[in-house]
Model the fold of this input.
Amino acid sequence: MDWVFLSELAINGALTGLLYSLFAIGLVLIYKASSVPNLAQGGLTMVGAYVVLALARDVGLPLWLAIPLAAVVMFGLGFGIERVALRRLAGRPVVMILMLTLGLDIFLRGTTLAIWGGTSRSMELGVSYDPLFFDDIFISRIHLVGAGVALALFVAFMLFFRTRTGIKLRAIADDYMASWSVGISVERGVGLSWALASVVAVAAGVIWGEIQGVDQALSLLLLKGLTVAVLGGLDSILGAVIAGIILGVVENVVSDFLDPLVGGGSRELIVAAVLILTVMIRPHGLFGRHDIERV
Amino acid sequence: MQEKVEAQNILSMNSVEVLYDNVILAIKGVSVQVPKGEMIALLGSNGAGKSTTLKAISGLLKAERGRISRGEITFQGVDITEALAQERVEMGICHVIEGRRVFEHLTPDENLTAAAPRGMSRSTLNAEKDKIYGYFPRLAERKSSQAGYLSGGEQQMLAIGRALVTQPKLLMLDEPSLGLAPFLVEEIFGILQKINKDEGLSVLLVEQNALAALEIVSQGYLIENGRVVMHGTAEALKSNSDIQEFYLGGGETDFHNVKHYSRRKRWLS
Done:
């Protein structure tokens, strides 16, 4: 057993996992404020990356300006989605809203294809590709940066949900009708959660765009992000972070053992197994809220 | 004379009809007046239209695809028939909906915070909370536990406290006694009476428990089949033989001889 190699797998797995968390935080934000799993988060992430590129390449702004500007644009887009599409569905069965988000994801993918085409573009953040060395362990710089962004967002949102606005969003997720009855604007709250999730999508889009290039494949991050969010408990930001690390480590270490046996490709299987087992064994995830049944 | 009466009523509901899904007529021309600073009860059996009446006043009909198709509602002389639920809360109407419906995953303290009106300062909010904990000391004891695990009585207290944070002028309660032990109902009604006296808060109370309700209100309306069939002071209603028979459990004891049909028909005609 080569311990150096194993810890390298684990550490890089954990960093990759935190990048899944970065994506999953967006899902959790929307779920926490409206109890709807947002299947369009992949599409939003992809659009976030494209908007950054459009501002940086097509308009010619420097990246340090293009990224915050894209965050502002996406914040507006998030609010717009609530105003145009979701508001009509308030109070309808969750499955309707779920289908709407799926349709939105397809719509966003089609739109980027129409505007920017399907060729992969590079983000070129300027982060060096040379790995860092800690003793004998290789660590990718961009993964380290992304993990740092994920942790920063985690802390920011943990604090946010203790503020008055954050508490109101959690109240909306608990009970729309009761929220209306005490004058909480459910519509604005849901809009705000989409806006914040869209900002998170910019962060995830930039980091993932740097790693795998910007094209429609970015939206497929949804599968891993959803797995992380479900494992973490869908409405827990802490859960998303810890579940991300767990999935990243398990995926990296286990696939290293399995790949030689099955001839490669076991990563996807591991992700699928984690998702299915979570739903079967612990549907509310590691840290998710239980539905309270009083007797 | 008429104008003077109008000025004394904080809420006036005139011949209001409510349609659900554009087809189902849930209430058929209900008129209810709430004089300022008084406690009024809406009585009636299940499905009579009491909750719908409250939702028409609070604006929560819209969430259930209902709408006011005829009539008008004025609050402090302002027509609110078309106002949004949120605007009505800001004007001072707060509706404690049926079934308590506290925010289960929040603590009681967070439940109160969630209801804070926009722009309420932190110090005002804390003062409001202290006042509410003063009315309901049990809530203060449990303010950091999860609201979903409070007892039924505590949840009802929290639901009322949460409504009080919005600083209402008219508080509407939908069946606050539902599923609670009689001593708790007495405690909660006692506190409502105290708030009504101390702060001059007007209260509109929907109850099936007519006996308990008529003890604390000044007037009552009896609603059946979406219509007001009787209106009078609490004393008059308590001594009415029909009310005694159907709602207070007194009167005829031989159930074979109870003349449900003919009496109801007499009200409705």
Observations:
- Chain B has a mean pLDDT of 89.
- DSSP finds twelve helices and ten strands in chain B.
